[in-house]
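Entry 14. Ran structure prediction on the chain below.
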Amino acid sequence: MIVLLALIGLLQVDLPPASCDVRPWMAICQGYGDPAPSPDPGEPARMEWAGAEALGSVCASSPPRPRYFQRLVWQTGPNAGQWVHTTDFPSNPGPGDSVPGGPGVFAADGFVYRFLCVSATFGDDVWAEARRQMDPVVAEHDPYVRGLTGLDTRVWYSGDASVEPFLLSWTDPASGITWNVEAWAWIRLFRWDFGNGTVRVRTASTPSAVAMAQGSPENPAASHTYQTTSLSNGFEEGFPFVFEATWTGEYRWSSDGGATWSPVVPMANTFTDSAAITFEVVEIRSTLTR
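Output, structure tokens:
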């Protein structure tokens, strides 16, 4: 998107509230409020911004922020009261091409818009709430007390591996727009370090994949067979067994009470929680007697 020079003669006025059919995956806005009043025929033509609605996209800055589009309407001249169209200009740019206008004005789907980035960020607040709802992880394994050489040690995670969707809301001080934010989090990476150089990893790219990645006592996520005892490896108390869980999250936003939502955006933050134990592995030897 190309930022252009400021529009000469741009007039900023308050227009009636607009109703817009926003499609989060496309830059389409139709059905804005009442047309602008008829201008003085002798007054030069001017363009005005009209309406403001959420659209599913992010600004160039990082972390992602909401942005919304504003339609342009002619305030004066022969097209007064009508939406500004790319065909109103000497050249006819296509979707995504720049057109004469103010900062951020561009052509999309045959119409002319400008976009505004919300000045306030909410990523930190959303992540803080997700972190508050995360339970501490625990290391689970079978056999439970100690392992045996030649016998599978099975591992899984039976704790809460996800944070259910929750809602936050805040008002951007610059625009006065109230945003509803829906967010959720889950353990994306399950990592078991058996303490003897063996590591097992399971991943869940989406919340729906968590159940399979974390496993269960009946259907473990992973297993390992120790061939030697922990003592013979120099660990008097047992192997340093460590389970790590890396949390991630996503969110989306709405400025119209949830009627329309932005596409889902990944949170910039991650968090790794761990549980460490000493896991003794012993060897059983059979003795023949008469």
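Residues 253 and 289 are 74 Å apart (CA to CA). Will compare against last week's run tomorrow.
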